[in-house]
Amino acid sequence: MRIAIVTFDGFNELDSFIALGMLNRLRGLGWQAEIAGSAPQLTSMNGVGISSQQPLEFANDAEVVLFGSGIKTREVVADAATLARLKLDPARQLIGAQCSGTLLMARLGLLGSLPACTDLITKPWVQEAGAHVVDAPFHAEGNLATAGGCLASQYLASWVMLRLAGEAAAKEALHYVAPVGEKDSYVARLLSVVLPFVTQPQGTTV
């Protein structure tokens, strides 16, 4: 299971790293989440420097593509050359985004009239791009999902796990990362948000 965490310069660490860490809990099932960066070296919004694990084009062949947010997203969506590097297909890929990453999905023509989640700062830009923004932490229809708020990355990761690994494997992975003393309640809360949007039989592929 190839998972691309699409990441650009100025990225939000919480968006990229939380999803990556949670999804790699299923490495034993053959899952591999990697940073697919727009450049070999990237610097986060808080000055953390990283090396991309894969080029941006890795997202085109991955089974799962997740867009995080960042302080330069509006610059990214204004760069036609960068957008042209992404050739995604929701018919064969799970594609999700959070916060300003939702703006990328909108500009790539993936959202259409679907309800979309994002952060409050990005909301007017996503609306300008033609998306219908809803006041919710997570929404998914078919193979597309969006989330709003930095910590909403946990919902995107949970959605991917539930869709492609099934509820039992998802619960095990989520239980591992949950805070001690809150594990059962934490997992139950995540599932209460995401499970209503999981329409495919659990454990099936895209």
Describe the protein.
The structure is a single chain. With 206 residues, the chain is an alpha/beta fold. Helix content is 33%, strand content 20%. A seven-stranded mixed sheet has the order 5-2-1-6-7-11-10, sandwiched between helices. Strand 3 and strand 4 form a beta hairpin. The chain is globular and about 45 Å long.
Number of helices: 8
Helix amount: 25-40%
| Helix and strand composition category | alpha/beta
Total number of strands: 11
Distance between the termini: 11 Å
Biggest sheet record: 7 strands, mixed
Supply Rg.
Answer: 16 Å
Low-pLDDT regions: 201-206
What general outline do the C-alpha atoms trace? globular
Mean pLDDT: 93
Order of helices and strands: EHEEEEEHHEHEHEEEHHH
Beta-strand residue percentage: 15-25%
| Main β-sheet, spatial strand arrangement | 5-2-1-6-7-11-10
Pfam families: DJ-1_PfpI
InterPro entries: Class_I_gatase-like (IPR029062), DJ-1/PfpI (IPR002818), INH-QAR (IPR052158)
Organism: Chitinimonas prasina
Domain DJ-1/PfpI: 1-155
Structure, briefly:
The chain is an alpha/beta fold and 206 residues long. It has helices at 13-23, 73-77, 80-84, 101-107, 123-128, 153-164, 167-177, 183-194; strands at residues 2-7, 32-37, 41-43, 49-51, 54-55, 64-67, 94-98, 115-116, 132-133, 138-141, 144-147. The longest helix is centred in the C-terminal third of the chain and has 12 residues, at 153-164.
Task: Give a quick set of tags describing it.
single chain; 206 residues; alpha/beta; seven-stranded mixed sheet; two-stranded antiparallel ribbon; 8 helices; 20% strand; globular; DJ-1/PfpI; glutamine amidotransferase; INH-QAR; Class_I_gatase-like
